[in-house]
Amino acid sequence: PADKTKAVVEKENGLVNVAVGKVSMSFDEETGQARSLVVNGREMFEGGNGFLFDNFRYVENDRRDQVKNFMQSGMDPKGTVEVSADEQGRTLVKTVRNGSKTNQELVYMINGNGTVDVYVTLDPHSGELLRAGVACCLGKQYSNVKYYAFGPYENYSDRPSGTMLGRYSQTVDQMLYQYVKPQSTGNREGMRELELLDDNGCGFKIEVDGSCSFTALRYTDYELYNAQHHWELQESDKVVLHLDAAQKGVGNGSCGYRTHTIPEYCVPQEVTKLHFRITEVN
Question: What is the pTM of this model?
């Protein structure tokens, strides 16, 4: 049923604040990025790092000169925020931000009962994206991961062998595979449901409608890229979450001249959508 709890909208210190029942969110008025998501008093985002397109991924066999072309997301410095209600009275916050690699539209449907539906639409400008999805940061206390996806080991669209669809429980630290050279790791394909919880079992659940993969690590892909050894990684105060509707396979040109990821495992140059629901776990 439609939630018709009236939204309270305020603008203050460069933020657009939207409160609907048990949920409150803040958005950067200049960029459109979500800075805060609070459900029943529990904050999801760490350091104001809400959902935003992130294309970067580093696999050691990739040529470093090619990797540098993808390090930046290419998003424009400015975006828009628009608060409205649909025909059923539900509160919608639409954020739009264009970029050199893709245009991004995020629509948040805020329900006063304590859930937030996020609708992601990406319109890529080329067929060279490494990932088509969004990333955010959560507090380091959400270090316990329960998920329904392929596991228990990391897997990718072109590297699924040895994994099975099921329900698994691990810690965020266990999801960082100790490659000799730190690099992007920990992906899980076929995600249906994900919980990120503190040691008391409290946190957030994300349920996905459609195809999705996820990673939950202590470090950004940039931090892994810049470290030569695992002992160089600094103690982290965050959990970096990626939700990708599509991700390029890890097959690359390391084994011969002009070899590359075959087309069926590349991110297609077409409008890509992702829908997920966020619920507090208490």
Answer: 0.94
